[in-house]
Fold:
Amino acid sequence: MKRMTNNVSGSFFVLGRGFDHAGEVSGRLKKVFLAEKMSNEIIRRVAIITFEVEVNIISYADHGTIFYHVDNDVITIEAVDQGQGIKDIELAIEEGFSTADDEIRELGFGAGMGLANIKRFSDTFELSSVPGQGTSLKCTIRTDSTKMDL
Amino acid sequence: MDLNGIIDKLECDCKCCHEGLKNEVTGGYAGDLLSDVMANSSRGDIWVTRQIHQNIIAVACLNDLSGILITQGAIPEDATLEKARSEGMPVMVTRMPEFEAVGRIYHLLHYREKG
Amino acid sequence: MKILDAEVVIGHDKMDLDIQTAFGADLMSDVLAFARPKSLLITGVTNPQSVRTAYAQDIAAILLCRGKMPSKQAIDIARELEIPLLRTRYILFETCGRLYQAGMTGCIREVCSPETDETHDK
Structure:
């Protein structure tokens, strides 16, 4: 049973280059939405999206910020980072494409599924980037939506 | 079947969160690519993996997996066990490679269903 | 192949190869460290790395699981190196489970600790 609260929002700072904290923001956001009594599916989608966003910031940026906002029945997650940016967005979203180095791959990241996962689990998805400067991403999840292949 | 049932039948060792060994195991997931595990594992799965770094705990908690079995004699990092303790996520280790471990667990889970 | 509804991507002429053992892994460094020649490699890694690693270990064939499609470069390299490449929609857990039930064994039984310095090969 879900109960919607309007204007739940916040942000988290993510430091780049260190995988020690990968998943922390995802875990914290999961707790926020558990407290808001969102459905299991919605919580899981938010957690996966946030985790992937975090990993991208850590892998490719100096630092970034993740914002979340709930308004009516829509959850919005936005992320802005300062870092190397993305040269070819179409290619980057393709499943299997990755620019991760060997170190990142050995940790099990960098399989080229991050952006694909974010797109898959969200209802709307926008991505823009300036190579050499940074990337920004915005996605929304409608709390009454469902992704059949979950 | 709970994690205790699996540990009994397999040559593996629980490194932390023994109280979580009563977690019900409803299925299994094998793999070392974290995005894939996040996207495709299900609540209650036992996760069989070779990864040993602390991020596996966050990934396992994300989908409420029943526990993590680390294969091939790999030793989980101290930070991993620390995080596991703080989240109550059982971490087990075995010297068996993934294929053998999965084969045996699969057999246990399916035999139990028919039993 | 039948057990897994697998599809052959490359190597249709090699389907009568007899393979007794298997190794499942997504980390290629593990494949290099532990896999054995003439085994089946079961993995979710779709890039050419998995093919080159398999070649280095004299792997008999590669089975991609989780419904993954190998990249074009991976297919080209598999063709060039003559390594059969198959794919199945089943996840790694289900794939290993079914093959194990059917009598396939792991290419090594277990990884030994450095102190004993033995390997048990099946």
